[in-house]
Predict the structure.
Amino acid sequence: MGLMSNVFQKLNNPKYNIGIALSGGGVRGFAHLGVLKALNEKGVFPEIIAGTSAGALAGIFYAYGYSPEESFEIFYHNSLFHFTHVAIPKKGLLSMEKVSKILKKTIRAETFEELKIPLYVAAANLNDGKIEYFHQGSILEKVIASASIPVLFKPQIIDGKTFVDGGVFDNLPIEPIKDQCKKLIGSHVNPTGEEKNLDSIFRIGERAFHLTVDTISKEKRKLCDLFIEAAGLSNYGMFSLDKGREIFETGYKVTKETLEKNNPL
């Protein structure tokens, strides 16, 4: 009886007040930083974070202690999403080496435990065909794995297993944090309205990827106390680096508008 009582108490008394899940989306991930800025201005500060792909990148900077604006400046001025290093196309067309170098330079934490805010990053384990949510131990290669879009980027080998972008299985990673927080926010940067610009292999590839992962994410939105998504983000490709500030402001604006209409927090 005592054991069951303790389990029930844990389920009904989450450790954290507010948690946020950040979806993947390439350069559209700039919008997450705008979302966080608007939330902070309203006195809303997430105490636990889960991120996939670009959401994992935004999440690590915020969890480390950078403000949303500081994170944006690092992302933008270091061209974090500008992948110019072409890999030998055995396992991927592009390399994440540049991203790795920037993370090493700006994030001094070597483990998840050193971050100021608890962080979970979702990555797809291709060997076992399942999603994994990393939140302990060494951090760099796990964040890189979460952002390694299949075919485009070389996968990451972790403990002998091959990992790629978590969006393959879970592009809105609420599972690892939904029972740990009283209120859950979902920030989704992949609206899938009509797409007219399919004039390149990258646009076709990202469109197919978005449509696939979106079907998995739709049901999860219902579990969020606050769900934030800007339809206008569909106008930006995953690699539209020069539109970074516009994307950031889109996330900021839609969050302010959403909170003004309905603030359940």
Summary: The radius of gyration is 18 Å. The longest helix spans residues 201-221. The longest strand covers residues 181-188.
